[in-house]
């Protein structure tokens, strides 16, 4: 990996093909050894094999594949138009994507910051169950690993790590007025909270949010008064430095089958706002299971120790 975090370089055709074709080396043999061509032809042969793979890429998807350095090869489709091109990062693919685009991300570590500013995009590990880590560690303040300000975006099957020395707005994943969905994700932050919402809509399903220096999830209304609503289901929030889930400033939480355990604060800190807890478990938290503030209206309390 380049000495600079997140530094990228475009590999030669041979490097690109070796990254893409580890599971399908037979294609190289067909172009190379089977035909008896010399080693000097290898870059050209690798490029031929890469072109064949590009022609077989699934429609309506972007495919990003990391290697020793971060590289990505993609076919992007939107509104019935398809083009094939190369991206050196997930961020570049996001910039090029239109509404409805799906970005498939291959196994590996992606050291970059992802910003969503309008288009409705889905990012997902591919194939399903692959280990994909998106990590952003910086000395700059106020930089979430994933930052969404508008539009609707979905993250599926990703690990997200974060470090940024902010006093406020310190989140691994931060949605500020957008519609953000997390499915089957693992989120951690060594400097702040795992997931933050300031206005807009947040959907969290089957996630693990843990080992964050501050809260696991923190929910607020927008600074402009925009409602902040979160639905959290089948999710574990544990081993965080403050509360498992904090609800404040009039935000709303709908929690179903959420497990909040071993947090240094409360499992659920319901300071002000509204919400419902259904089939939730809160236990072994340093300051107690639930803190219910005078300005919080709880619909259906059902969390237990």
TrEMBL record:
Record keyword Membrane present: no
Gene3D superfamilies cross-referenced by the UniProt entry: Single-stranded right-handed beta-helix, Pectin lyase-like
Keywords linked to the UniProt accession: Repeat
Protein name: Right handed beta helix domain-containing protein
Protein origin, superkingdom: Eukaryota
A Pfam cross-reference name: Beta_helix
Annotated InterPro entries: Beta_helix, Pectin_lyas_fold, Pectin_lyase_fold/virulence, SCF-Subunits/Alg-Epimerases
Stretches assigned to the Right handed beta helix domain: 150-292
Coiled-coil boundaries: none
SUPFAM superfamilies assigned: Pectin lyase-like
């Amino acid at each position: 990996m380049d000495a600079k975090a997140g530094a990228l370089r475009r590999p030669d055709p041979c490097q690109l093909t070796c990254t893409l074709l580890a599971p399908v080396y037979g294609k190289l043999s067909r172009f190379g050894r089977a035909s008896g061509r010399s080693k000097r032809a290898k870059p050209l042969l690798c490029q031929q094999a890469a072109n064949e793979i590009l022609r077989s890429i699934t429609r309506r998807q972007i495919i990003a594949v990391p290697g020793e350095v971060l590289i990505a090869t993609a076919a992007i489709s939107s509104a019935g138009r398809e083009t094939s091109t190369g991206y050196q990062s997930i961020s570049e693919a996001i910039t090029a994507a239109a509404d409805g685009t799906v970005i498939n991300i291959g196994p590996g570590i992606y050291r970059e910051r992802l910003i969503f500013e309008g288009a409705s995009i889905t990012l997902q590990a591919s194939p399903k169950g692959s280990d994909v880590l998106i990590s952003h560690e910086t000395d700059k303040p106020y930089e979430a690993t994933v930052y969404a300000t508008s539009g609707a975006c979905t993250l599926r099957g990703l690990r997200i790590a974060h470090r940024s020395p902010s006093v406020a707005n310190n989140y691994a994943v931060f949605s500020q007025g957008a519609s953000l969905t997390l499915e089957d994700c693992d989120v951690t932050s060594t400097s702040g909270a795992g997931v933050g919402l300031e206005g807009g809509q947040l959907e969290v399903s089957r996630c693990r949010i843990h080992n964050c220096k501050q809260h696991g999830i923190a929910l607020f209304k927008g600074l402009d008064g925009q409602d902040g609503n979160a639905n959290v289901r089948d999710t574990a929030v544990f081993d965080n430095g403050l509360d498992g889930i904090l609800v404040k400033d009039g935000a709303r939480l709908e929690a179903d089958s959420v497990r909040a355990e071993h947090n240094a604060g409360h499992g659920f800190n319901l300071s002000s706002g509204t919400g419902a807890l259904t089939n939730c478990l809160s236990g072994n938290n340093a300051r107690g299971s639930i803190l219910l503030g005078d300005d919080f209206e709880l619909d259906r309390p059902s969390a237990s120790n």
